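User: Hi! I'm working on a homework problem where we have to compare a predicted structure to a textbook description. Could you give me the structure for the chain below?
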Amino acid sequence: QVQLVESGGGLVQAGGSLRLSCATSIRAFTIVSLGWYRQVPGKERELVALISSSGNTEYANSVKDRFTISRDEARDTVDLQMNSLKPEDTAVYYCIAVGRRFRDFGISTHWGQGTQVTVSS
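Assistant: Happy to help. Predicted structure tokens:
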């Protein structure tokens, strides 16, 4: 009952900007947090940014002050504005949703399919 679809990835020059969007379709869950992770081949998936249901945000130190996570409830999206991009930001970016089930209050985690971001030097 949860679907996440990312868009907005692509190729950009260093110093440029991209805006990622995660379209959410969430039913029978209360959202605990939404966010973005990224992964480079051969490395573990790492946290980029999270936003809780109350609006609190958390960022990786490597992206703090450059990236901004936000929710647009009117469009049912979770967005990641990425500015001053660096080549080391190159990765597959995944949307994540953590929710609590209405029925039994259990926690579940859901992932999007990922979108490629490539930053050239």
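For your comparison, note the following. The mean pLDDT is 95. The radius of gyration is 14 Å. Good luck with the assignment!
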